Protein: dCTP deaminase
Amino acid sequence: MILTGPEIIAAAGDGRIGITPFTADQVNPNSYNVRLGATLLTYTDEVIDAYQPNPTKEISIGEEGYVLRPDELYLGHTEEKVGSDVYVPLLFGRSSVGRLGLFVEITAPIGDIGFHGQWTLMLSPVRPLRVYPGMKIGQIMFFVSLGDVDLYSGKYQSADGPRASRYWYDRMAVR
Structure:
C-alpha cells in the first residue's frame, strides 16, 4: 500500500515520517515533492574505481543556477531531510523534470526503513540544463512494510549534503 497525501501529512505530524523542513504545499496525491539542495559533487578522475575511494569536486549552485552537462554524473542532494522508521520511502524524479531531459535517481530509488537524512541524487542530463537550488526535483512515496523491521544503520545514515559512493567501504569491511 502507498500512503496518500492526507496520510503523508498525518504521518509527518505524528512522527511516523520525518520531513524537515515540511511544507504542506509540497504534498501531492500520493507523494511529497523534494527540492534540490545547493551543493553538487562530481568525480574528478577520468576513471571511477568501484574498489577505491574516488576524489570529488564540490560545486555550489548559486541563485543564477548551474548548467549540468551531458556525459557527466552529478551527485546532488535533497534540501529536505527525509526518513521513516515505519514506512519504506521511494524517491523518483518529477515528470516535469524528466521532460527537461534530466534523469534523477534512476538506479537506486529505494530508501531503507530507518534512514534519516538528506538524500543523495544521481543527476544525469541528456543535454545542457540549468538547475537551481530549491527547485522541485523529485518526489518521495511511502509504502507500508510487512514483517519484522530491521532499521537501517549503514554508512550513509544522517547524510547532510551529497555523498559519494562508499561501495569500496563494504569491500574493506569484509577483509
User: Anything to note?
Assistant: The chain has a mean pLDDT of 94. Residues 5-14 form the longest helix (10 residues). The CA atoms of residues 23 and 32 lie 9 Å apart.
